Inverse folding.
């Protein structure tokens, strides 16, 4: 059994629900529960470990996931980073570290097994006004796409993975891309002065999924802050 086959077979449901942000999400425990029967069938094992890494003046939890076959041979390995906040109201230092570890491990496994952690489309409040955009007549991807009015209309031509990642660089979203690189274990790209698009389709997909998740988290945090001030 190859990593690609596990990626195709693995179905990790989003069994948790954020009532404030109104979206479903999966935890690292959800991924582990979904993985166990798949790994057991082929006698594969998965080892996850943490390291504390100092980058600049901030500490990050570096999670490493190692997939091995029944003979102990390493099939695949992936790393991801999550930054510990300086403080978190209502949480002790130990709880902060534990939560950061879980966060890092989740994105490490999500990157290895190509799991998309963005919110489900049907978990959002779709009561807001919608606007319909139609591809030009004769366009190979012609279809009717309904998206929220405040969102950017989809491009007339489907962008490639590198173009989608380049969008974050060209539209002042570099910090989102940097954090996505860290979460998916591509810290070499994250620490470059001049940000570049990573190569390799699998890595590009994992980074793009992380970018979507980060954008959703930041939106939820912004809405939460606005709600507390109102």
């Amino acid at each position: 059994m190859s990593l690609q086959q596990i990626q195709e077979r693995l179905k990790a449901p989003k069994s948790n629900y954020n009532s404030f942000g109104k979206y479903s999400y999966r935890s690292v425990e959800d991924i582990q529960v979904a993985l166990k029967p798949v790994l057991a069938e082929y006698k594969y094992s998965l080892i996850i470990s943490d390291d504390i890494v100092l980058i600049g003046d901030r500490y990050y939890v570096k999670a490493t996931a190692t997939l091995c076959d029944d003979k102990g041979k390493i099939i695949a390995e992936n790393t991801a980073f999550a930054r510990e906040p300086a403080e978190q109201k209502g949480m002790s230092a130990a709880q902060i570290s534990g939560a950061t570890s879980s966060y890092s491990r989740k994105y490490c496994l999500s990157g290895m097994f190509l799991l998309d952690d963005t919110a489900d489309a049907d978990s959002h409040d779709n009561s807001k006004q919608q606007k319909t955009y139609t591809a030009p007549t004769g366009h190979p991807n012609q279809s009717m796409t309904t998206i929220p009015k405040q969102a950017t209309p989809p491009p007339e031509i489907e962008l490639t993975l590198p173009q989608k990642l380049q969008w974050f660089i060209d539209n002042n979203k570099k910090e989102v891309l940097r954090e996505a690189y860290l979460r998916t274990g591509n810290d070499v790209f994250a620490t470059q002065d001049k940000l570049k698009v990573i190569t390799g389709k699998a890595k590009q997909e994992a980074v793009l999924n992380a970018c979507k998740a980060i954008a959703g988290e930041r939106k939820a945090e912004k809405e939460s802050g606005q709600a507390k001030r109102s």
Remarks:
- The chain has one domain: 3-123+147-229.
